[in-house]
């Protein structure tokens, strides 16, 4: 079973919106891969109150290092952290899947 890292824009979104998008991403990834995945939990609901963006990015990159595949959700290109995660995934040979939302 492949370990799946989900990269998604989170700024300005509620926890519910983020979790809903993650659920959809998992379903899409499993359909595209034609197999179930083990999801790496990269949604930090218990982050320190004073955590800065680089804290989140550092934790995300640590988790990305253990992934077999990185899934990038809709509008990832507009989020600084997602772009960095994408570059790292490519540079370090982690398979990437970009959400196909051309039919939206």
UniProtKB/TrEMBL annotation:
Domain of life according to the entry: Bacteria
UniProt name for this protein: DUF4406 domain-containing protein
Lineage: Bacteria, Bacillati, Bacillota, Clostridia, Lachnospirales
